[in-house]
Amino acid sequence: MYFPKEVEIIEVGPRDGLQNEPIAIPTEKKKELISRLAKAGFSRMETTSFVHPKWVPQMADSEEIAHFCKELGINYIALTPNLKALERAISAEVPQMAVFVGASSEFNKKNINKTTSESLDECEPMFAKAKKEGMFIRAYISMAFSCPFQGSVSFEEVKEVCDRFIKLGADEIDVGDTNGQANPQLVYERFSRLRDLYPDTTFVGHFHDTRKMALANVVASMQAGISKFDSSVGGLGGCPYSPGATGNVSTEELLDMVSSMGCQTGVDFNELIKISPFAKSLSTR
Ligand code: HMG
Ligand code: MG
């Protein structure tokens, strides 16, 4: 089996972990979570989302969170689903933006009110603008394995989104098991094919743990050469437009597993396990 010497764990708890919480979490608590996570040694985190507050009320404080991250001096990612979001992110001096386009058009219509093809068209001016501003571009392919609305998702559907992202100049492609229905065999096959087709592209694995297969999916991804993974402290998370999906793979479980296999991450496990109860206390689930 192949295990990378170094693994980058990108903590997405403050964004994916909290976005689906039904009761407003005070911004001060979110700031506390972010600063404690920063001290645990993450090289970058996903901290907020410039979405419409009507669609995702929990992320209504994105400007304030971005300002806080800047003061803290951390490298972070913010979700930017459209041009308006990108403009807000640029005004807030966000260093890394993330677009998210589903391999399934049905999901896109529900999540961002556009078809896959319309979403990809909007990425064109967005990527150009972000590049001009010197921003790092993370591009998510959501529902990259299956979709609650259309069922299975083909490799060709994933490839179509991936091709376009790469042509537009994404800095990394984040492959999302948004509803947590993937299994290790599918993950291994899909990442192997992507790596064969795009050997120079950086891929990230983003696994939700609905079927408790997220850690197994991480190991399967590693066998296909992937060494970057998103996770959420306390295993919090979920997408408001992905019914039935549960949280992301828990950061502490991921860190425990990869560290015990000898992979370096730069994250302090003892600090992290102290943060986990606090993160969970912010969630109603
Ligand atoms: P829309 O309603 O289609 O937007 O929303 P619109 O272009 O029709 O504009 C309508 C109004 O909204 C206008 O205002 C715009 O200015 C305003 P009005 O003229 O009526 O006063 N507007 C905005 N305001 C603030 N911020 C904006 C914005 N855009 C338009 N960015 C939109 C389109 C994308 C905004 C909406 O669909 C949305 O916010 N969706 C949220 C999607 C979301 O956050 N989903 C969860 C995250 S994705 C996820 O969790 C998956 C992931 O974790 C990966 C994985 O697991 O695979 C990333
Ligand atoms: Mg997610």
Structure description:
The protein is α/β, with parallel strands linked by helices and 285 residues long. The protein has a single domain, classed as TIM Barrel (Alpha-Beta Barrel). Helices cover 44% and strands 16% of the residues. The chain is built from 11 helices and 10 strands. It has helices spanning 13-17, 27-39, 62-72, 83-91, 105-112, 116-132, 155-168, 184-197, 214-223, 251-260, 269-281, and strands at residues 8-11, 45-49, 76-79, 96-102, 136-142, 146-147, 151-152, 172-177, 203-207, 228-231. The chain has an 8-stranded parallel β-sheet. Strands 6-7 form a two-stranded antiparallel sheet. Helix 9 (214-223) links the parallel strand 9 and strand 10 (228-231). Helix 2 packs parallel to helix 3 and helix 2 packs antiparallel against helix 11. The longest helix has 17 residues, at 116-132. The termini are far apart. The mean pLDDT is 96. 3-hydroxy-3-methylglutaryl-coenzyme A binds at residues 16, 19, 49-52, 55-56, 81-82, 84-85, 100, 111-113, 140, 142, 176, 178, 206, 239-241.
Provide keyphrases for this structure.
two-stranded antiparallel ribbon, 11 helices, eight-stranded parallel beta sheet, binds 3-hydroxy-3-methylglutaryl-coenzyme A, 285 residues, TIM Barrel, alpha/beta, binds magnesium ion, 10 strands, globular
